[in-house]
Amino acid sequence: MAIRSQEISDILKREIESYEPDVEELNYGTVIQVGDGIATIYGLKQARSGELLSFPNNKMGMVMNLEEDTIGCVVMGSDLDIKEGDRVESTGRIVEVPVGEEMIGRVVNALGEAIDGGPAIASKRKRTVEFTAPTVPERQPVHEPLQTGLKAIDALIPIGRGQRELIIGDRQTGKTAIAVDAIINQTDGDVVCVYVAVGQKTNNVAAVVDMLKKHDAMKHTVVVAANANEPPSLLYLAPYTGCAIAEDLMYSGKHVLIVYDDLTKHAKAYREISLLLRRPPGREAYPGDVFFLHSRLLERAAKLSKEKGGGSMTALPIIETQLGDVSAYIPTNVISITDGQIYLDTDLFYQGIRPAVDVGLSVSRVGGAAQIKAMKQVAGPLRLDLAQYRNLAAYTKLSADELDEASRKQLARGERITNVLKQPQFAPVTVEEQVASIWAATNGHIDSFPAHQAQRFEAGFLAMLKEKFPQVFTMLRDKKAVTDDVKAALETAVEEFKKAFRATAG
Ligand code: ATP
Ligand code: MG
After folding, report:
1. What CATH number does the domain located at 28-94 have?
2. Residues ≥6 apart with Cβ < 8 Å to 80
3. Which ligand 1 atom sits closest to the C-alpha of 318?
């Protein structure tokens, strides 16, 4: 009973014709290309932008590009273990990181994993790295000061809780130093800090962590680090990770200060990823949405309304300029997103005016509302004296003519004030002490001494106040204003101090 070959082929033909594939959308895909930290994946039709994908060997990736047939994905960490043909599974989750109080005091990478050699972080909660910023009704106007402890900033460019203030300047002008001092100044206060290091050398970040430890500031700080030797995907992610950690604390009613050091390197990492994903390059080869990269990050800084718990997130993004060019693409973007900028100047830095804040170009658009009354009282005359000094100093550079008496006095005052505003690193000053120093300088009490003695005068005066007139500081703390009593005490103190200072100065 043999079947004839004709029959076999008929059966086969029928089978083939009636074949209907069972089409099912499977939630996995296949790697078709991998390299430079980017994987192209076929399949995964339901993937969402920002979704976490799981590769073999516990590798993770994040969806960046959604194309018709393929998906562009950045690999978190090294892509060396990933091969063409590997199976990729969707996790259904948007990238999330551990958050909560357990993070405080720790150094973590862009994925929120401990890298400080300590135990794994026992955080119970996770939060997506991207989150919509609070809406207008969920916010309230910025009205409390965030003291940096730096005289030049707290007096002239005050920062309020919930504000976004840009620190901008060329390389090596003390940008990081300002941020670190602001963090150190929160020691024993009610502000938690998050320092995000993006694309820096590992030893620089280690030095910052050491300094924070040395000044007892790690106990209220989280450090998120994605260093220069790490893949761009992690550099891209780090600020959002830091923001998620800060945001969680803000929504639990805390005050948070977050530093992004720096967003220039963040933009460069994003440019690298975008070019590898073959997104069309625009100005300076950045992709078209590079503005959105930073705006959606900085929009999340806020002062929350009472109903939302009243917490705040103050952001200090840092931008590095080339030869002071603030009109380049990334600097102008971030300037327009923030509520003001602290402009650091290389020339001032080398003249020894440190912090090298250019008080003429720096502004704080909302901070004035966040100064205590005492500071407002003394900062007004300070601003005026400095503006007049700048005009005169520029003029006297051009003309060697004899100056009249009034102008000479203005110049002398300006020099002394400039010296009083100088401040070494890691030596934050309380707002009460700042008020006393600035009061002495703007009321001309240092004018009769040589300009180079201004800093010594200031230090001596503060020490003497602490010893003999501590009521000045208690009154300032209680009343938050330079009342007649405070003024009278300051007058008596300064006259007594001038006599003593004159004697020691010889
Ligand atoms: P980079 O561009 O490399 O990130 P930066 O602008 O962050 O540099 P810093 O690293 O903060 O600058 O400071 C540069 C140098 O200036 C450091 O050696 C620092 O110790 C010193 N410096 C910063 N601020 C002061 C200050 N107020 N007084 C004295 N030295 C300072
Ligand atoms: Mg720096």
Report:
1. 2.40.30.20
2. none
3. 7
Per-residue pLDDT tens for 258-285?
999 999 999 999 999 999 999 999 999 9
User: What is the model's pLDDT at position 506?
Assistant: 58
Nearest CA to ligand 1 atom 2: 171
Mean pLDDT value across the chain: 93
Distance from Cα 175 to the centre of ligand 2, integer Å: 5
Locate CATH 2.40.30.20 in the chain.
28-94
For domain 374-505, give the CATH superfamily.
ATP synthase alpha/beta chain, C-terminal domain (1.20.150.20)
Ligand 2 center to 399 CA (angstroms): 38
Q: Is the CB of 470 under 6 A from ligand 1?
A: no
321 lines ligand 1 (CB under 6 A): no
| Cα(317)–Cα(263) distance, integer angstroms | 7
Query: Which of the listed residues 354, 418, 422, 423 should we mutate to test ligand 1's pocket, taking the one with most ligand atoms within 8 A of CB?
Result: 354
Tens-digit pLDDT profile for residues 291-347: 999 999 999 999 999 999 999 999 999 999 999 999 999 999 999 999 999 999 999
Q: 176 in ligand 1 pocket by Cβ < 6 Å? A: yes
For 191-300, list the strands marked E by DSSP: 191-198, 221-226, 255-261
Catalytic residue numbers read 365
CB 386 within 8 A of CB 394: no
Distance from the alpha carbon of residue 261 to the mean position of ligand 2, in angstroms? 7
On whether the 98-371 domain is CATH 3.30.565.10, my answer is no
Cis status, amide bond into 262, omega within 30 of 0: yes
The single residue listed with the structure tokens 């910025």 is 142
Tokens at residue 241, please?
A: 């990770």
Q: Is 452 exposed, middle or buried (0-12, 13-18, 19+ CB in 10 A)?
A: exposed
* Residue range 17-33: mean pLDDT, rounded: 79
pTM: 0.92
Report the atom number in ligand 1 closest to the C-alpha of 423: 27
Query: Does pLDDT of 22 surpass 80?
Result: no
Protein residues placing their CB within 5 Å of the ion ligand 2: 176
